[in-house]
């Protein structure tokens, strides 16, 4: 260690704290190493024919999944497989649900008209609340019903601790903790759950970094919009949303979130949250045979139902608010159009428009309702485009000024923008600090605006539409 001549009491205290942190980290690593070696020695001394049992199934699989050469490609392959199976399996159930729920909408509207209900009441209940709810359920339920069991399967197999083990070196370099990888995995399902999972990190500084950056992991509520927009604009074939191209763009959104997580963690750990990274000693559990029924029940009740209920609880009120804004006029223009007019200059500067920013603003309660609100805004609260008619939906967006650049900026903004209201409330509940809670909302928003602005200006300079 380089000797530094202290010039004040503050320098002495700072040097002492750095030395203490360094010693604690080294000591924890040394203890973990010695315990592991002692266990191996006891095993070899007391187990007969230990050489026959040394190469068990766990050791052989760990040679693959924790290898410096094969470990990272295997993680990417498993992630790609999970997304591909989710997209492939959710395609036709979503179409069936959409037809069923929107046929009920027609019957409900006819019943209210026959009952001579006021037109505004039919608009609020049917074309506002029910239509938004039907869209969220039909688009969101099939993907999460497939994604969560697959995620729970990897968890039950014992693979998730291997992800933390593989990524520990990266998190340590950016001044964070290896367990943050586990909280990010939880964030794929719900960022609020990922923030709660940050409790497994002992260091308050590293736990706060994990809480503030979990929003960059695309949650399941953002997947449907990313899937649909990439299928419509960023691939040649729009007939199937389960194509390889859509999977690639979904992986792009995940990698974008992970890269930004590393950058922001590195920046925070060297500015407002300075400190030495704490030691991370993890005992990799043996691989287990998955309990299929337990996985299905746990993933459905604890995750699928929870997330869908939360989305449905905010979808109906948000649909009502959107319909009211679109159908309430003030001085010759609807309130929604006035909001769009205010947001249009910023939206145009970052490759979006006022309708898109208004949809994200009104979609603050839950990310799942951003796309339904956007479509209702473009159609002025009238007809929501049939999900099965991808060409018709693409035509609506193109007629509203969308290009491939708009789609790319939409995906980037969707990944990086502020967390939903539930996640913001959860961050406040975990930190009990208003300043950090406000920072957790404004910091991602600033990054999203900056990233979209750079992409827009670079594409304009290069002449790319």
What does this structure look like?
This protein has 19 helices and two strands. The protein has 465 residues and is mainly α. The protein has one domain. β1 (329-330) and β2 form a beta hairpin. α5 packs antiparallel against α12, α6 packs across α7 (180-189) and α8 (191-197) packs parallel to α18 (421-431). It is globular and about 85 Å long. The chain starts with 8 loop residues before the first helix and ends with a helix. Mean pLDDT is 80; it is low at 381-387.
Question: Which tags fit this structure?
Answer:
mainly alpha, globular, 465 residues, 2 strands
Instruction: Determine the strand fraction and express it as a percent band.
Output: under 5%
Q: Tally the helices: what do you get?
A: 19
Q: How helical, in percent, are the residues?
A: over 70%
Residue ranges: pLDDT <50 for 5 or more in a row? 381-387
Total E-strand runs: 2
Helical/strand content category: mainly alpha
Rg, Å, rounded: 25 Å
Query: What number of domains?
Result: 1
Oligomer type:
single chain
Mean model confidence by pLDDT:
80
Question: How is the topology of this model organized?
Answer:
Blueprint: H1 9-46, H2 50-54, H3 57-65, H4 71-114, H5 119-157, H6 160-173, H7 180-189, H8 191-197, H9 204-213, H10 223-233, H11 244-269, H12 292-327, E1 329-330, E2 333-334, H13 335-349, H14 354-362, H15 370-378, H16 390-399, H17 404-416, H18 421-431, H19 434-462
Antiparallel strand pairs: 1-2
């Amino acid at each position: 260690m380089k000797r530094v001549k202290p010039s004040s009491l503050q320098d002495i205290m700072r040097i002492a704290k750095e030395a203490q942190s360094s010693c604690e980290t080294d000591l924890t690593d040394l203890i973990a190493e010695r315990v592991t070696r002692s266990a191996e020695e006891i095993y070899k001394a007391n187990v007969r024919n230990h050489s026959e049992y040394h190469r068990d199934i766990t050791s052989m699989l760990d040679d693959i999944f924790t290898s410096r050469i094969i470990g990272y490609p295997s993680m990417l392959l498993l992630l790609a497989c999970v997304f591909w199976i989710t997209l492939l399996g959710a395609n036709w159930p979503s179409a069936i649900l959409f037809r069923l729920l929107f046929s009920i909408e027609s019957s409900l509207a006819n019943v209210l008209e026959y009952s001579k209900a006021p037109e505004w009441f039919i608009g609020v209940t049917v074309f506002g609340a029910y239509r938004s709810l039907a869209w969220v359920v039909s688009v969101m339920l099939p993907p999460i019903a497939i994604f969560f069991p697959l995620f729970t399967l990897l968890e039950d197999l014992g693979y998730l601790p291997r992800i933390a083990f593989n990524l520990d070196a990266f998190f340590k370099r950016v001044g964070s903790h290896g367990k943050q990888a586990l909280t990010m995995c939880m964030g794929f399902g719900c960022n609020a759950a990922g923030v709660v999972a940050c409790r497994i990190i002992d260091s308050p500084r590293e736990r706060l970094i994990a809480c503030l950056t979990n929003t960059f992991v695309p949650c399941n509520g953002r997947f449907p919009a990313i899937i649909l927009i990439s299928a419509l604009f960023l691939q040649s074939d729009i007939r199937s949303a389960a194509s390889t191209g859509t999977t690639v763009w979904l992986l792009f959104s995940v990698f974008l979130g992970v890269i930004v997580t590393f950058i922001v963690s590195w920046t925070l750990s060297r500015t407002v949250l300075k400190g030495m990274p704490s030691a991370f000693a993890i005992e990799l559990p043996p691989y287990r045979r998955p309990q299929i029924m337990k996985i299905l029940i746990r993933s459905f009740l604890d995750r699928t139902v929870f997330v869908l209920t939360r989305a449905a609880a905010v979808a109906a009120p948000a649909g009502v608010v959107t319909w009211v804004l679109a159908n309430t006029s003030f001085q010759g223009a609807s309130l929604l159009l006035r909001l769009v007019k205010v947001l249009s200059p910023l939206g145009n500067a970052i490759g979006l428009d006022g309708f898109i920013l208004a949809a994200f603003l009104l979609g603050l309660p839950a990310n799942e309702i951003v796309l339904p609100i956007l479509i209702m805004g473009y159609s002025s609260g009238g007809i929501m485009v049939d999900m099965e008619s991808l060409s018709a939906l693409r035509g609506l967006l193109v007629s509203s000024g969308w290009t491939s650049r708009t789609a790319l900026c939409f995906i980037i903004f969707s990944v990086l923008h502020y967390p939903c209201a539930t996640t913001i409330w959860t961050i406040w509940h975990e930190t009990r600090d208003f300043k950090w809670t406000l920072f957790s909302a404004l910091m991602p928003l600033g990054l999203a605006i900056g990233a979209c602005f750079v992409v827009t200006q670079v594409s304009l300079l290069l002449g790319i539409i």
